[in-house]
Design goal:
This protein is mostly beta strands and 176 residues long. It has helices at residues 75-81, 170-175, and strands at 6-15, 22-26, 39-43, 49-60, 64-69, 85-89, 110-113, 117-126, 133-138, 141-146, 152-156, 161-164.
Length: 176
């Protein structure tokens, strides 16, 4: 399985028991969706995704998942996967309706501004900052558009278009 075909689920943050159980911090608003998984991919050294099968997993406090892997039955084995990232295939993501979307699914979509028309193609989404930002490219120039309820309009999956209403001056800042 390639990382491009998967989504980041979370990270193993600590050991839970001497029997190899671990706690994973999930990057999701709905951790309960992942309580009964049968397997998960763990990114090992070099970024290789390795499947690990699960004997049992359950929620532990808010967004921590307590996982008992088939292959991890002692502290030494748990140490080997500590601080590693967890991934699942994109097909495991629940389908979103309307204007809700996953960042990966709008890459390649055209961005249509209410005032300026076509302002480019989505090349990525930067969500490492406090405010997620659309990375849009046109004529070898990059435009950054904050993803807010006020700016983001409609997401049209059929025409592969993201409709935005950018604040005055934002487009001119990039394309003068």
């Amino acid at each position: 399985m390639r990382k491009e075909d998967c989504f980041y689920l979370g990270k193993i943050v600590s050991k839970y028991s001497y029997k190899g159980e671990v706690l994973a911090k999930l990057d999701t608003d709905e951790p309960e969706l992942y309580e009964n998984m049968e397997s998960v991919f763990i990114a090992m050294k070099g970024g290789t995704l390795v499947p690990f099968f699960i004997d049992r997993c359950r929620l532990h406090k808010s967004n921590l998942l307590r996982i008992d892997f088939e292959e991890v039955k002692d502290e030494a084995a748990a140490d080997r996967i500590l601080r590693h990232e967890l991934y699942l295939p994109l097909s495991f993501l629940p389908k979103l309706e309307g204007d809700k979307f996953y960042f990966h699914e709008i890459i390649g979509f055209t961005v249509q501004d209410a005032e300026h028309g076509n302002v480019g193609i989505v090349t990525g989404v930067n969500d490492t900052t406090s405010q997620a930002i659309l990375e849009v490219e046109k004529d070898e120039k990059q435009l950054l558009i904050p993803i807010t309820d006020e700016i983001l309009g409609k997401v049209d999956r059929e025409t592969k278009t993201v409709h935005v209403n950018t604040p005055d001056g934002l487009i001119e800042l990039y394309f003068g």
